[in-house]
Design brief:
alpha+beta; Butyryl-Coa Dehydrogenase, subunit A, domain 1; Butyryl-CoA Dehydrogenase, subunit A, domain 2; 3 domains; 3-stranded mixed sheet; globular; flavin adenine dinucleotide binding; AcylCo_DH/oxidase_C; acyl-CoA dehydrogenase activity
Length: about 400
């Protein structure tokens, strides 16, 4: 939360940002410039080489993210982070996704995720490791029958003496094998024993070695049509044993795992909006450059009015989508009312804008766009996913309409 947000009570915070609140301050411009330079000079060439081969982000690139402090944007300075807000976190995410969405995504596996140990000294240790990129995890929330409906999670966690025993299946767990830990949502009591379906859902921390699964966990890679750079797994949990302190302590009463997951999703949805803008911007910029050099009928195709108008519509849509995630990020940083709904609005509009803009860009490339010779096809494939993960467009519409009609 910004200093302004700390000085004011929530009752004084409005959903309308002051005229200068969303401005790019000199510090934000410097951060954006550093992220953009890194993305274009170091990430984009790697993406162009490895994505067509469906290979993961190399360790050297992860190390560079740690050196630049991008794994610690949301971690306080006391623990080696930058102590910044959701706005700065998403500002960097847009720049990284413009080059390779997987790199824009991997920083979400740091930035304090998986650090809520009940032991204060252990929590401090994990926060320092997270900020440095030495504690990078994988999110194990979804299941074969529980995606948008997280309250439908069936994975169980039962007590056995001083340990927890985890059983079940997790799906869509990106970066699982290479991670330092799994951030796991499981059910500690059967559904129906609480007041709601979500009662009994808790978050567990599963430490592991990079490159192998712990005893009781096996994994199968999921074949995807895009979003390469992060291998996605289906995990089978069969008698996974965890110590008592694996239950994450978020400062809330027991039984808050589901609500904590939803809070995490609020920030994740704004970040998805920023990543979607990055993809759309990459496709737009590439389409502009291609239209200048591609000639048909003796002239660059950029001379054609129909194409120029298409580019103008694409550019306006990208700017509008960015404005939405800027506003949503500001609300979350301020702790102001309406942040979650604004996050859904930003995610809905930006992801669907990205799908449309990247498709238009591929059309501008013509047949050349339907090859792996240009980055535009990667932006197109990855943009399609942004309308699905972190809550589908249909789920975002439900959240927004429920808020309107409540």
């Amino acid at each position: 939360m910004s200093d302004t947000g700390k000085r004011r009570g929530l009752g004084e915070v409005t959903t309308a940002a002051p005229a200068d609140a969303l401005a790019l301050t000199p510090a934000r411009r410097d951060l954006q410039a550093a992220a953009r330079a890194f993305a274009m000079k170091e990430v984009l060439p790697v993406a162009d080489e490895l994505d067509p081969r469906h290979e993961d982000i190399p360790a050297s690139l992860l190390d560079r993210l740690g050196e630049l402090g991008f794994f610690g944007l949301l971690v306080d300075a006391e623990h080696g982070g930058q102590g910044l807000g959701v706005f700065e976190y998403c500002l960097v995410s847009e720049e990284l996704a413009r080059a390779w969405m997987s790199v824009g995504s991997i920083i979400a596996r740091g930035n304090g995720t998986g650090c809520a140990s009940p032991d204060p000294s252990r929590r401090a240790e994990l926060l320092r490791a997270s900020a440095a990129g030495r504690w990078v995890g994988a999110i194990a929330f979804s299941e074969p029958h529980a995606g948008s409906d997280l309250a439908g999670v069936e994975c169980t966690a039962r007590r056995d003496g001083s340990e927890w025993v985890i059983e079940g299946t997790k799906r869509w767990v990106g970066h699982a094998l290479s991670a330092d830990f799994l951030h796991l949502l499981a059910r500690t009591r059967p559904p129906g024993e609480g007041e709601s379906r979500s009662d009994g859902l808790e978050l567990f921390l599963v430490p592991k070695e990079r490159g192998r699964f712990p005893d009781g966990v096996t994994g199968t890679p999921i074949d995807k049509i895009g979003y390469f750079g992060l291998t996605t797994w289906e995990l089978q949990l069969d008698g996974l044993r965890l110590p008592a302190d694996a239950l994450q302590d978020t400062g809330q009463a027991e039984g808050q795992g589901f609500k904590d997951s939803l809070r995490w999703l609020g920030t994740a949805r704004v970040q998805t909006a920023a990543r979607a803008v990055g993809l759309a911007r990459g496709a737009l910029e590439d389409a502009v450059a291609y239209s200048r050099r591609r000639e048909q009928f003796g002239h660059p195709i950029a001379d054609q009015q129909a194409l120029r108008h298409k580019l103008a519509d694409m550019a306006a849509a990208v700017d509008a989508a960015r404005a939405l995630w800027w506003h949503a990020a500001w609300l979350l940083d301020e702790g102001a009312p309406g942040g979650d709904v604004a996050a859904s609005s930003a995610k809905l509009f930006a992801s669907e804008t990205a799908e449309r803009v990247t498709s238009d860009a591929l059309q501008i490339f013509g047949g050349n766009g339907y090859t792996t010779e240009h980055s535009v096809e990667r932006y197109w494939r990855d943009a399609r996913l942004t309308t699905i993960f972190e809550g589908t467009s249909e789920i975002q519409r439900k959240i927004i309409s429920d808020a309107l009609l409540s």
